[in-house]
UniProtKB/TrEMBL annotation:
Family (UniProt): Belongs to the cation transport ATPase (P-type) (TC 3.A.3) family. Type IB subfamily.
Major place of residence: membrane
Identification of the protein by name: Cd(2+)-exporting ATPase
Recorded GO CC terms: plasma membrane
GO molecular function: ATP binding; ATP hydrolysis activity; metal ion binding; P-type cadmium transporter activity
Gene: cadA
Compartments, record wording: Cell membrane; Membrane
UniProt lineage: Bacteria, Bacillati, Bacillota, Negativicutes, Selenomonadales
Amino acid sequence: SIPLSFFAGIGGASRAGVLVKGSNFLEALADIDTVVFDKTGTLTKGVFEVTAVHPETIPEKELLHLAAHVERFSTHPIAASLRSAYPGEADGCTVEDVEEIAGQGVHARVNGHTVCVGNAKLMDGLGAAWHPCEKTGTIVHVAMDGVYMGHIVVSDVVKPHAAAAIEALHAQGIHHTQMLTGDNRATAQEIAQELGIDAYECELLPADKVERLEALLKEQRGGVAFVGDGINDAPVLARADVGIAMGAMGSDAAIEAADIVLMDDDPLKISVARRIARKTMRIVR
Ligand code: ADP
Ligand code: MG
């Protein structure tokens, strides 16, 4: 039978805004030693804003126009920021053959032209020209018919409690914290440093994230928790010893795949839940 203390632990977590899907996950949470985080929407708010526009061959407005049209159907938070930077309606533009490539960007035909909007990996993969730039922030390159049109810088901000969340985990004896992101090195490094995370890996595709998590699981120190919010995080959440999802802004797929859900998306609640889990296990064991 399940000891009553488990119910007390699950109830306590629930009052703190943390949904624990079973007593076994409370036990697993007490035993984790490594916490791996997704970046966008997990450690950052996941709400981007256009902070700079660098057109190369067309006017600034045209560059924003192209990006907004290609991103018309995307649910990615970067797409939303590009659409609101160019609120112009469907002004006679025909957008067809839209294809979104996870962790890279989108390409489509706009008025018969092939337009790619995304990161360096997307440009390389589609054989579109792009010029390197040293700006910090997330860089969205735009190419039309293989010709470089310029780039748009979008920026996201870290969540108010993100640094405190990492600090609290280290103070509790978590030996390793790590961030996995599809974003570029400059942005990843800046955020990892600001938050005091032990390690980070950047420019990862969704499949790379699963691979990295599996490598950490094989190291077999203690258990490995993964914290994420997106559709693409679902396979990683399922693979971890403890999958933790953001419940408010997180995708349904992530919430479904997770063992534990933070109802208010506050990463500080990971340490709160772990404290409850450890207390419960001290009583049960
Ligand atoms: P993260 O790993 O930070 O959660 P994603 O895997 O969703 O981010 O995306 C990784 C990178 O792919 C982004 O930083 C961006 O450069 C690019 N990207 C993904 N989707 C889009 C999109 N719809 N438009 C433009 N760029 C995109
Ligand atoms: Mg994310």
